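re: ur msg from earlier - yeah i can do the iron/sulfur cluster complex, just paste it... oh wait u already did. ok heres what im feeding in:
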Amino acid sequence: MSKIQALGLDVGSTTVKMVGLDAEGEMAWHFLEQAEPLLENQIARFLERARNVTGPLDGIPLVATGYGRGLVNQATRTVTEITCHARGIYRELGHGGTLVDIGGQDSKVIGISPQGKVIDFTMNDKCAAGTGRFLENTASRLKVSLDRMGPEALSVSDEVSISSTCTVFAESEVISLIAHGVSIASILRGLHRSLVKRMVSMILTVGLTPPLMLSGGVAQNPAIRQMLEEETGQKIILPHYPQLMGACGAALFALDA
Amino acid sequence: MSIGPALRYHWNVNLLGRAGLRWVRWQAERRVKRGAHGKSHILTPPLKISARTKELIGRHYLKGRYANLRGKVAWVTSGAPIEFLKALDFYLLYPENHGAVCGTTRTAVDICAQAENAGYSRDICSYARTDLGTMLSCQTPVGKLPKPDLLLTCTNICQTVLHWYRVLAHHFDVPLILIDTPFVYTETTDHSVAYVKRQLEEAIPIAEEVAGQSLDERKLKEVTRLSKLASELWLELLGRCRHRPAPISVFDQFIQMAPIVEMRGDNFTVDFYAAMLKEVDERIAQVIGAVKNERKRLLWDNLPVWYRLRYLAEFLGRHGVVIAASTYTNAWAELTPKMDPERPLESMARTYMYPILNRGTGDKLATMRQMIDDYRLDGVILHSDRSCKPYSVGQMDQRDRLIRDFGVPALLLEADHNDSRSFSKEQVANRLDAFIEMLEV
Ligand code: SF4
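and the outut:
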């Protein structure tokens, strides 16, 4: 493995991600875990892992991002996830456009200039209905594993509409749909549609400048990708590691230091 | 006024109260001199005159506390045409300003809860809830509010005040004067001016009857003249923030605006702003900015977040960001040229139709654009105020136009001016951080 020159740590609300870059800014190492309640302990463990790979961390700059970035005492600097995501994706894809990031507990749309600068953004971190948590909650209610949700939803063509825009009330709506004998796959399709429609209105707030890019954990879900394409009429471009874009951006800032 | 209450008023306000407030002011001045605020590496200490502001506001509420002993009291909305009441010697209480005091002292939420428990919805403006809460419970950080003998409301700021003042009228069982001001889409018409003027003419006899005296035309002109003079000084003061670095920020303006709202028409208000202008000019001469190390300058739209003024000032100041202008503080300055002391009623009718909240959203956008140019600003923070619907409606489109048509970065910040339950610190901080990074400070 080439030598790690900079580290980026993205302390998100559902997952914690760390990326190590070599001198050229290429990803040399990464690590991801579900977020734990005691973030400080988890961060210490991440640093320990990094140390095992790189040797002593002294002199290796570390930039923290994500909602828990303020808890990373070892960071040389903190940068918001908006700026880090834009930086990470621009480095990988090499162009501007509109980036949609759907994370576990928040989602954001970022307008990126052709030069890679953030020109506008909007965030939803007040309501779970526009985030991965919306799917997660209902998945557990339907006893479908998270990675099966997208394929299941795409396996049928009929779709029920979920009228509730609230995660909690959507759950009760789902229960009543099941009671009415609606198939789980159609319900899943409806749930995906509901989330995507929310995302589309966020995209329109920022304005859709193609191409449309997708990052965050939910980007791995094929139904979200397909429906987002249907609803926007745009082809979606995915980075190689959608979940690591924030940590990559952070590491790139660290490399600047 | 009979002799007993008059003596009590004099004793409490002019003797005891005045001495107490002098003492408070003296202490505040000493604090400024000692540099008690001066440890901040981010912000310049408040203006020296702030000690006087404190005294003025304290005196206003002290007079209010005993006002029922001395004469007649009217509760009025912030944008109401108050000059004729002032000329009739009413003590004027502004529930919105009192609401702001509750906001800054962080007592508003408890007081709002009193109104909510009585059945008023949380969707109602938090100024209204604060006032209704005080009405029901008498809770207030200023000691005690006087009971109104008359109410004056004007629809030039919103429709909430209409319903709110009806509740007050019912509760206190006093007359309510309502001045209805037609919305101004682009320009007002002579017909509308005549309509508002006629309402004022009809309101005067009602107020005269409550006051027990008739309106003296000369006094009305004098009050209008003093109102205009104070507004002119306020306009000049705000204009001084065109300087780089801005000598005061909007957070200072938010505090210093109390007299222009609730003490306009008084001669001491004119002296007060003249003195403030002098101090601000001294700052400019010495190249002192409100934010040490000013790097970026912004515009603020909508009401302040009263319970987080210091937090926001320091948060932005830490990054060298100053908010140099706001559509809100500008609202008490921009109408100055329309005031004409020689034709008080007609000019009042015209002036009071033009507040920013009574004009179209396109007009507000044009005002913002103009301010961005005049003050050489780098971006805009639009406070989306959950309470104030008329101020917040249109902000999404205004933000859009600022970014797309004019290339001005703009951020929508969701909060509430008085209800801290609608302010989520982490989320506000995250948005502000990202916006500041975007401005490349
Ligand atoms: S709704 Fe707005 S204009 Fe009306 S009283 Fe409340 S803050 Fe003032």
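cool cool. Chain B touches chain A through 17 residues (CB under 8 Å). ping me if u need the other ligands too
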